Amino acid sequence: xxxxxxxxxxxxxxxxxxxxxxxxxxxxxxxxxxxxxxxxxxxxxxxxxxxxxxxxxxxxxxxxxxxxxxxxxxxxxxxxxxxxxxxxxxxxxxxxxxxxxxxxxxxxxxxxxxxxxxxxxxxxxxxxxxxxxxxxxxxxxxxxxxxxxxx
Length: 151
Fold this sequence. Notes:
Layout: H1 12-33, H2 35-64, E1 78-81, H3 88-91, E2 120-127, E3 134-138, E4 147-150
Antiparallel strand pairs: 1-2, 2-3, 3-4
């Protein structure tokens, strides 16, 4: 009878230890990367960009129209939508190619046709009653940020 003294390979315990170590490393990596937080930060970055783009378009409109604010902007905070501050037709496409939309609204698809019934940008706009400054805000922020620009 021949004994198998020179057997090569890993034991079951060795394989389980390696799999356990890999699982711990994978868990640490996922916690460090945190994909949900990364997506939230990306959405907030888009919101900052959108708020600035809308405010820049409003300022360009005002510069071309001797300081007149687009119709629909009042001292009451309103949603930029067809039911609120309907400024889409005043801005698109002359001052901005498309009206930006919050990533959480309508999958973030920008409004290019201002005659679309029920459009909603997810952003708000108001003009200060005391100093006539315009404020555009992104109320749907994630991770506790405050995204608001006033000029």
